[in-house]
């Protein structure tokens, strides 16, 4: 089973807008990453987001470019939520989870290294990691940085 973890697109500063929608540059970057993924047809079939505006908007950009209609909010994906509880709910193959730091870093570290504080990867806004679950050991298959799209 493959899952995908993505950090939300760059958001507007909290002092400018407490809801923190994604910025114009963030929307452009997320669209560029999503278009790159779409060209490679990796088979994302569902998208889950934290419900925070920046996460939801990023998920919507990805859904538009990937042609995914199964998009919804999922609890347990906020910045400081318990990653072990979140991991126990990962049961959808080919799902993209759009979330926040430090939750994403800790989730990936827990999946790959067994220690949520290990620091396996440093996510960037709109970056996506592909993780293979279900084998002997979870594996980080690839990470797409927005800098290379």
Overview of this protein structure:
It is a single chain. With 149 residues, the chain is an alpha/beta fold. It has a single domain (2-148), classed as 3-Layer(aba) Sandwich (Rossmann fold), CATH 3.40.50. It is built from 4 helices and 6 strands. The chain has helices at residues 24-40, 53-66, 83-88, 103-113; strands spanning 2-7, 46-49, 71-73, 95-99, 128-132, 139-144. Strands 3-2-4-1-5-6 form a 6-stranded mixed beta sheet, with helices on both faces. Strand 2 (46-49), helix 2 (53-66) and strand 3 (71-73) form a beta-alpha-beta unit. Helix 1 runs parallel beside helix 2 (53-66).
In the CATH scheme, the class would be Alpha Beta
Structural class call reads: alpha/beta
Kindly state the percentage of residues in helix. Answer: 25-40%
Termini separation: 25 Å
Strand content: 15-25%
Domain count, please report it.
1
**Rg (C-alpha, Å):** 14 Å
> Which of globular, elongated, flat, extended, rod-shaped describes the shape?
globular
Q: What characterizes the major β-sheet?
A: 6 strands, mixed
* Poorly predicted segments: none
H/E element sequence:
EHEHEHEHEE
Number of helices: 4
**In what order do the strands lie side by side in the largest sheet?**
3-2-4-1-5-6
Reported by name, the CATH topology is Rossmann fold
